[in-house]
Specification:
Elements: E1 4-5, E2 17-18, H1 19-51, H2 73-83, H3 87-91, H4 98-131, H5 140-162, H6 173-198, E3 204-207, H7 208-234, H8 264-267, H9 269-294, H10 298-323, H11 328-353, E4 355-358
Parallel strand pairs: 3-4
Antiparallel strand pairs: 1-2
């Protein structure tokens, strides 16, 4: 019978564990890192699907049968005929050929297929780890929550697509933001949990303010990603393609032109892009201040430096993307860059979590 022991665990929230479970921690961490990498790829493919305006090409949600693409000319004609019934075809792609339809269809089908593969890549190892009793009691609920969130993400994706099938030529920016936000949360939760299983280092001494700032950076980067989703959903990156001014001014007029005033934060292309710019500056200021504050602490200095460099590079890429009116490669690179920044912010914050506080 396995003996339950208390050890210097990488994650203080896990508590006691058997020898087998302790030995399996890094195996589980590798698995979670791998699935998180697939989620990272899923977000990028989703961005490319949006940039190529392919997301509405499949007008039905068939979680099982939809795994197979059309297998005959008749099936392709049927899928194309269904697409021709929605507003996007009527007002945007009128006259599209079947071959052109196939191009956008494959993007959306690939996006959905990757989602299914992620489900299997998570579920099958999870069941094996559970069956072989390698999962600690405190860890099992976290893994179950990840799986449930993945299922909700699939349903949320279809809810988003439905918003563009009747009265719109694209999807709702609100639903797009919710879809990207949940994907990002799943990625962050999975990555953070894997870090807790992987790392086992001695506590370091840093100031309480430095640790709080690290958490603040994670939250601010996540907020900036949500603002970026609103920019994408409203296609606000295709206008005001100048920097640092908008319409010749740093603070343009008309930011609150819509009534009620708060609706501008979600439905005004001008205001949404302005907000995205301003929060980018705020992230840069906080990241640079944080890097400066972390210099006296050797264990925190390196990760703070990498985070600050990534933030500056991402802002530069965002400016480039804006000035060139969001070409597809730059748009996808900018979305990938946001996830890279978030990843580095998570690594840095997690490193500062196991600390002895210094006032």
């Amino acid at each position: 019978m396995a003996v339950s022991v208390q050890t210097g665990t990488p994650d203080r929230g896990l508590g006691s564990a058997s020898d087998r479970q302790i030995a399996a921690r890094r195996q589980i961490a590798w698995w979670l890192f791998g699935v998180a990498g697939l989620v990272f790829a899923m977000v990028i493919v989703g961005g490319l699907t949006r940039l190529t305006e392919s997301g509405l090409s499949i007008t039905e949600w068939k979680p099982v049968m939809g795994a197979l693409p059309p297998m005959s000319e008749a099936a392709w004609a049927d899928a194309f005929q269904k697409y021709q019934q929605i507003p996007q075809y009527e007002f945007v792609n009128k006259g599209m050929t079947l071959d052109e339809f196939k191009t956008i269809f494959w993007w959306e089908w690939g996006h959905r297929l990757l989602g299914r593969l992620i489900g299997f890549a998570f579920l099958l190892p999870f069941l094996w780890f559970i069956a072989t009793r390698r999962v600690e009691r405190a860890l099992a609920p976290r893994l179950a929550i990840m799986f449930v969130l993945g299922g909700l993400q699939g349903a949320l994706g279809w809810w988003m697509v439905k918003s563009g099938l009747t009265h719109r030529v694209d999807v709702s920016q609100y639903r797009l933001t919710a879809h990207l936000g949940l994907a990002t949360l799943i990625y962050a939760y999975m990555f953070w949990t894997a870090l807790g299983l992987w790392r086992e280092r001695a506590p370091i001494v840093v100031s309480t303010g430095l640790r709080r700032a690290a958490y603040g950076l994670v939250g601010l980067v996540f907020l900036q990603m949500l603002l970026g989703a609103f920019v994408a959903g409203l296609k606000a990156g295709y206008i005001y393609n100048t920097w640092p001014l908008m319409e010749g001014r740093f603070i343009p007029s008309g930011l609150f032109a819509h009534e009620p005033w708060w609706i501008n934060f979600f439905e005004s292309m001008l205001t949404v892009q302005f907000d995205h710019r301003m929060v980018a500056y705020l992230v840069a200021i906080l990241a640079l201040w944080h890097w400066h504050a972390a210099r006296p602490f050797a264990e925190a200095r390196r990760s703070a430096t990498w985070l600050a460099l990534a933030v500056m590079a991402q802002i530069g890429l965002g400016i480039w993307t804006l000035l060139w009116a969001v070409p597809i490669p730059l748009g996808a690179a900018h979305q990938a860059g946001a996830l890279v920044v978030l990843t580095l912010a998570l690594v840095h914050a997690h490193r500062l979590r196991e600390i002895r506080q210094q006032s």
